[in-house]
Amino acid sequence: MDDFQGRRTDENGGGRTADERLAELFAFLRRRVTGDYEVDEFGFDPELNEKVLLEALRPLYRHWFRVEALGLDNVPADSGALIVANHSGTLPMDALMLQVAVHDELGRALRLLGAHLVYQLPVLGHLARKSGHTLACPEDADRLLRKGEVVGVFPEGFKGIGKPFSERYRLQRFGRGGFVASAIKAGVPIVPCAIVGAEEIYPKIGDIPPLARLLGLPYVPITPLFPWLGPLGLLPLPSKWLIEFGEPIRTDTYDPAEADDPMLVFDLTDHIRETMQGQLDALRLRRGPAFPPVSL
Amino acid sequence: MTRTALVTGVSGHIGARVAIALAAGPEFDRVIGVDTAPPPPPSGEDGAVLGRTEFVRVALRGPDLVEVIRDADVDTVVHLSLVSGPGGGSGGRPAMKEHNVIGTMQLLAACQRSATVRRVVVRSTTAVYGSSPHAPAVFTEDTEPVEVSHHGYARDATEVETYVRGFARRRPDVTTTTLRFATLMGPRVDSPLTRYFSQPVLPTVLGFDPRLQFVHEDDAVEVLCRMARADHPGVFNVAGDGVLLLSQAVRRTGRPMVPMPSPAFRLVSGLARGARLVDFSPEQLALMSHGRAVDTAKLAAELGWRPKYSTAAAFDDFLRSRGGPGDLPRALVDWLADFVTGR
Q1: Do B211 and A39 touch (CB under 8 A)?
Q2: How many domains, chain A?
Q3: Which of A32, A36, A41 sits opposite B243 (nearest CB)?
Q4: Pick the residue with more confidence: A20 or A246?
């Protein structure tokens, strides 16, 4: 083992030797097998998230989609915020990439509010909880925001992620604006976020509604690769991604009681939607082609 | 004026400890313990299991309870006789429901007639919130359950709470406290979940990793005593701080975990139930899939006190009493570490 002594490791090593990294790995394994770690009341397991779940996503983030995150200053560094993003791509890859961006570029855990469907499914529901996410319901949203967490929400829901390729980069109807009410109640800023690139990963050109009904899913997509190529069709196309956090919209100027005023909530929801559509159009223009020629 | 407390379910572990603690304190001159079965025989120590507490055996139906409350001028009633599962050979589920629901109705009816009762403390359970993927992650006292439980314990507790609310409406002069306890955990607790964690191999539901919350028996007794000694009206969740995931709890036991698909898990727990090994009711099966966590801020604010044991500490205390965790997995990692680093 003398060969390892003193040898420098890769860019993440930060000057640590292989031995130190190995010792760290075994300390991690020891903690994991003896259950000696903490999860929060939502089931968030920060250690597993950071060391395993996000680690698995980082190659996709860095090398496959070459994600660039912009407007990082718009997310508060240590207080609560509600990130509102567009949803697209047939499978929620955008949620995963947003999570990596918020964690790695901002150093904060993103707590997404997810659909009921996610929490009904085995494995997926509990992986979602372990990576910090929870069910989209006012109680959980209020609770997370009160704790000063960065909460993420995709108000378009299935209408956004499951829309046909022909409607790409057109924001769908937002839900009932529950997220706006939650932000007003907690007095936290709403950060509109545009994600460009997810639309092209699984271009949805068709749907199989009877099969979707049978499986209890919102849709079963047909893409240029799926289901024709079988599991290989699940490979996302390597589009170029940009994620931009926009100018925060303050809500602490309202009285928390105004969260119950439907007119205010509707107006604010519309305002946010228009802001995001503009942001999305500009960012799409800035990105240029989805599949730029590879420059070596 | 002499002050008298009545504790029901005093033949159970928690009931006996609450009765002893209340009898030892200065607040009550007299503590009467009632139950349908006699307390377990004295086991040395101070001669009697119940210490200064007077034990009265009562029938569930009939005038016994009314007479006890009237004759002794009871002013504080601590109702702990909710049973969580049909015990071995005592009539099964119908008897359990009779005990829980009819027993509570009888007690509350007796309290309503009494001119002396000033305070009623009732033990309930966080099982009233159910376990569902559609519910909020953390329940507060005013969260409506998404789906009302149709099974056993949780349903009994829900009905008991309904009667308690009715009683509180009819007798607003009486302070009524409902305590929703998380799963009890500790060296002397014997429940379906402690029996589950005592098995050599732990089956889990494949693809699910529920959040569990425990309250240590010492903390449960402490909360009950504090509620019996002073007025704290309302409904309160009682649980240790934090949560443990089932997988995490199993790892702490050091025993092998066997994830099995949900139907197989049902089958196995049905067999275990038939063999009277582990008595897993349907709502416990839901708990083993979807878990449950509650907010205890209201209790902490009301009492200015937090449970001494967190959920994890309560579980570790339970494990220590059962001979401590197995250390095979840890030994394996140590061996691997030695092997790789060549020492």
Answers
A1: yes
A2: 1
A3: A41
A4: A246
**What number of C-beta contacts closer than 8 Å exist between A and B?**
105
Q: What is the pTM of this model?
A: 0.90
Report CB contact under 8 Å: A126, B208. yes
A39 in any annotated domain: no
B54-66 per-position pLDDT tens digit = 888 887 666 788 8
- Whether residue A19 is contained in a domain is answered as no
Which residue among B138, B242, B247 places its CB closest to the CB of A143? B138
Residue pLDDT, tens place only, A130-144: 999 999 999 999 999
Tell me the shortest Cα–Cα distance from B147 to chain A, in angstroms.
15
Q: Which domain holds residue A56?
A: 46-201+236-287
Q: Three-class SS string for chain A?
A: CHHHCCCECCCCCCCCEHHHHHHHHHHHHHHHHCCCCCCCCCCCCHHHHHHHHHHHHHHHHHHHCCCEEECHHHCCCCCCEEEEECCCCCCCHHHHHHHHHHHHHHCCCEEEEECHHHHHCCCHHHHHHHCCCEECCHHHHHHHHHCCCEEEECCCCHHHHCCCHHHCCCCCCCCCCHHHHHHHHHCCCEEEEEEECHHHCCCCCEECHHHHHHHCCCCCEECCCCCCCHHHHHCCCCCCCEEEECCCECCCCCCHHHHHCHHHHHHHHHHHHHHHHHHHHHHHHHHCCCCCCCCC
Question: How do residues B18-42 score in pLDDT, each as one tens digit?
Answer: 999 999 989 999 999 988 888 776 5
Q: Is residue A68 part of a domain?
A: yes
Would A14 be classed as within a structural domain?
A: no
CA distance A126 to chain B (A): 6
